[in-house]
Amino acid sequence: MSGREAGVDLKGDERWRVALVVSRFNSEVTRQLLEGARAGLLRAGLKESQLDVFWVPGAFEIPPAARRIVAQGVHDGLICLGAVIRGATPHFEYVAGEAARGIATLACESSVPVIFSVLTTDNLEQAMERAGVKDGKGYDGALALVEMIHLYGRIAALRAR
Fold first, then answer.
1. How far are the Cα atoms of 86, 89, 93 from residue 144, in angstroms, in the given order?
2. DSSP state, 122?
3. Could you say which of 47, 91, 101, 134 is catalytic?
4. Cα–Cα distances in Å, from 141 out to 72, 81, 90, 93, 159?
5. For the chain, what is the radius of gyration of the CA atoms?
6. Rounded distance, CA 78 to CA 19, Å?
7. Exposure winner among 42, 64, 100, 109, fewest CB in 10 A?
8. Strand, helix or coil at 8?
9. DSSP state, 156?
10. CA dihedral in degrees (125, 30, 3, 41; nearest 10)?
11. CA 160, CA 140: separation in Å to the nearest integer?
12. Sign of the CA dihedral with 107 first, then 110, 111, and 117 last
């Protein structure tokens, strides 16, 4: 059951500010992820002026940049976009594992939602397929972020009762 089927509000708020941290490595894939995330956020009602894009060299650099962005307290949520494609060496496991670990740790510690939209695939073809603009991981990440910002707001409202 998708969020829309469950009756989750996927409408954004004109006061929100969203950060997108994007890896330049495998840019043919990450640009599609970014366009998908933008499309999802715009469809949810956000404006381009509410989106801040931060480029980093690779997926390994996403967690420290994301941590610094969250620490500024300016954004209501953050989407991490990257692509780690398996090669002939164990490098894939190190980069993918550390990117996932760093983003997951930040997501658990952060007061705002942090979404993991980093592809880990065996080849470029799989990455391109999963990065599709309208139905890919970037778009899904945008919808997840909007849903989680609403959820965090509901949880915060519990204190006001």
1. 26, 33, 26
2. S
3. 91
4. 22, 9, 27, 22, 28
5. 15
6. 5
7. 109
8. coil
9. H
10. -140
11. 31
12. negative
Closest C-alpha among 116, 112, 109 to residue 144: 116
> Coil, strand, or helix at residue 121?
strand
Query: Which residue, 144, 151, 9, is CA-closest to 79?
Result: 144
Tallying the residues shown for the chain, one arrives at: 161
CATH for the stretch 18-133: 3.40.50.960
Residue type, 45: G
8 A C-beta contact, residue 150 and residue 12? no
Active site residue 75: no
The amino acid that residue 41 corresponds to is L
What are the average pLDDT values for consecutive 10-residue runs of the chain, which has 161 residues? 53 92 97 96 96 97 98 98 90 92 97 97 94 86 96 90 70
Q: What pLDDT, on the 0 to 100 scale, is given for residue 2?
A: 44
